[in-house]
Design a protein that fits this description.
The protein contains 8 helices and 2 strands. By secondary structure, the chain is mainly α. The protein has one domain. The protein is globular.
Length: 131
């Protein structure tokens, strides 16, 4: 039997609505006039039932967009093409020709950025709530 977090109802809710964590990240990173547009853009990722890792991808977009609405749109389009490219761009860095998981995704304590978004994301990531 699947855990409740994997139920079809929860998946539909995850796609049709933004989580509280994503909403807080939007509010922390964007001016009030831009928040609604960013929400609309993020909701585009996940509208196709084949799109995976919805919550993770949305948070990764917010992590690397630099509070730029145009960049959010570009990153959503990238994720819709292949979400793995977005995950690599957000969570990995290239060192000596190899992709290496960034320390902030490996251990929450290693995170140098102590912003509420970064701390919340690290807690979410390490809690196993991957969509």
């Amino acid at each position: 039997m699947r855990p409740a977090s994997f139920s079809r109802e929860n998946k539909i809710r995850e796609i049709d609505e933004l989580s509280e964590l994503v909403r807080r990240a939007i509010q922390a990173g964007f001016s009030p006039p831009d928040c609604e547009r960013v929400e609309q853009l993020l909701l585009r990722y996940g509208e196709n039932g084949a799109e995976r890792e919805v919550e993770r991808v949305r948070l990764d977009i917010l992590e690397i967009c630099g509070s730029n609405v145009n960049e959010v749109e570009r990153l959503v389009n990238l994720a819709k093409t292949d979400f793995r490219d977005l995950i690599v761009a957000a969570e990995y860095e290239q060192i000596d020709g190899h992709l290496v998981l960034k320390p902030e995704f490996a251990k929450p304590k290693a995170r140098k950025d102590k912003s509420p978004l970064s701390i919340s994301f690290a807690r979410w990531w390490h809690s196993g709530h991957r969509s």
